[in-house]
């Protein structure tokens, strides 16, 4: 059997009871370690808590080495641990499909995901549109396709959850060209970079999808003891120090229920600026 087991958002102990039982009984346990991180744990603390070896699976192994992962899964249990929920934003459907092709049974042990825990910032999950991923811009690659998706959400008055890029085990262009297996330190996009990139694309497109005054909520280290929210305009977010990763950003839609604003006002960096920004933003996309 192939099991995908969600680890939840932060602590080694966020695994579910069923997830832990599956891990303890498996032949091999892999940790998918490139789409998210467990903020208060690492491989050795997982190994200590489970009392067994955990094999780190990088992108290459998960995407190109599925047969290696699935070896023996016809008779033994193999586990792939995924931070958050296995189907929250990162869909491991490729691995599941390959297992089914090989007639290996599959099962999923779900857990909390950023996709649902984001509700803790005070806006209703019902009022979100499409989720968008924001990648790090490089000197000559500044993709803006996210802009159209945010526009579709904003035209319907819906909130947009932006998941921010993570770069783990990346090679510099030079090292790649020279075939040197030297990896750059991990990088996690912070709120300031996300806001700057969003504002740059609005300046380029000028379609008023959002403006520097558009109200947003910054979500940092959700589900961890240092979880933090901040509600502010996009321009204020470009100055905001969000601290340690991980971070996500919500661009608010303008169909805001009073119960939502009553709740998220407690995170306001500047309450009067935010209140007038909410009124102004209400006039866009009408
Ligand atoms: C590709 S998604 C993976 C989601 C994961 N499978 C889940 O279900 O939560 C990773 C991105 O989600 C966001 N994210 C994940 N966990 C987070 C957390 N605890 N706090 C804030 N943002 C988080 C970050 O933007 C991160 O780069």
TrEMBL record:
It comes from the Eukaryota. Its EC number is 2.1.1.314. Pathway: Protein modification; peptidyl-diphthamide biosynthesis. GO terms for molecular function: diphthine methyl ester synthase activity. InterPro entries: 4pyrrol_Mease (IPR000878), 4pyrrol_Methylase_sf (IPR035996), 4pyrrole_Mease_sub1 (IPR014777), 4pyrrole_Mease_sub2 (IPR014776), Dphthn_synthase (IPR004551). GO terms for biological process: methylation; protein histidyl modification to diphthamide. Residues 1-237 form the Tetrapyrrole methylase domain. Keywords: Methyltransferase, S-adenosyl-L-methionine, Transferase. Pfam families: TP_methylase. It is an enzyme of class 2 (transferase). S-adenosyl-L-methionine binds at residues 9, 85, 88, 113-114, 164, 222, 247. It catalyses: 2-[(3S)-amino-3-carboxypropyl]-L-histidyl-[translation elongation factor 2] + 4 S-adenosyl-L-methionine = diphthine methyl ester-[translation elongation factor 2] + 4 S-adenosyl-L-homocysteine + 3 H(+). Belongs to the diphthine synthase family. S-adenosyl-L-methionine-dependent methyltransferase that catalyzes four methylations of the modified target histidine residue in translation elongation factor 2 (EF-2), to form an intermediate called diphthine methyl ester. The four successive methylation reactions represent the second step of diphthamide biosynthesis. This is diphthine methyl ester synthase.
């Amino acid at each position: 059997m192939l099991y995908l087991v969600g680890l939840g958002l932060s602590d080694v102990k966020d695994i579910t009871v069923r997830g832990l039982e599956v891990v303890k009984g498996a032949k091999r346990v892999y940790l998918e370690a490139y789409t998210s991180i467990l903020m208060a744990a690492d491989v050795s603390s997982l190994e200590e808590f489970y009392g067994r070896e955990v094999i780190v699976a990088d992108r290459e192994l998960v995407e190109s080495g599925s047969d290696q992962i699935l070896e023996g899964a016809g008779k033994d249990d193999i586990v792939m641990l995924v931070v958050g929920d296995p189907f929250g934003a990162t869909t491991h459907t490729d691995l599941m499909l390959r297992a089914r092709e090989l007639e290996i049974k599959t099962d999923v042990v779900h857990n909390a995901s950023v996709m649902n825990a984001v509700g803790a910032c005070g806006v209703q999950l019902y009022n979100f549109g499409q989720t968008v991923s924001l990648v790090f811009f490089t000197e000559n690659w500044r993709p803006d396709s996210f802009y159209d998706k945010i526009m579709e959400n904003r035209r319907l008055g819906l909130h947009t959850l932006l998941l921010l890029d993570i770069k783990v085990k990346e090679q510099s262009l030079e090292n790649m060209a020279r075939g040197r297996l030297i990896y750059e330190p991990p990088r996690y996009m912070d709120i300031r970079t996300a806001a700057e990139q969003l504002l740059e694309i609005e300046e380029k497109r000028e379609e008023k999808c959002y403006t520097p005054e558009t109200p947003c909520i910054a979500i940092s280290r959700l589900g961890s003891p240092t979880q933090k929210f901040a509600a502010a305009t996009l321009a204020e977010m470009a100055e905001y120090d969000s601290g340690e990763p991980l971070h996500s950003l919500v661009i608010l839609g303008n169909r805001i229920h009073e119960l939502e604003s009553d709740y998220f006002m407690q995170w306001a960096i500047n309450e009067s600026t935010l209140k007038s920004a909410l009124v102004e933003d209400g006039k866009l996309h009408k």
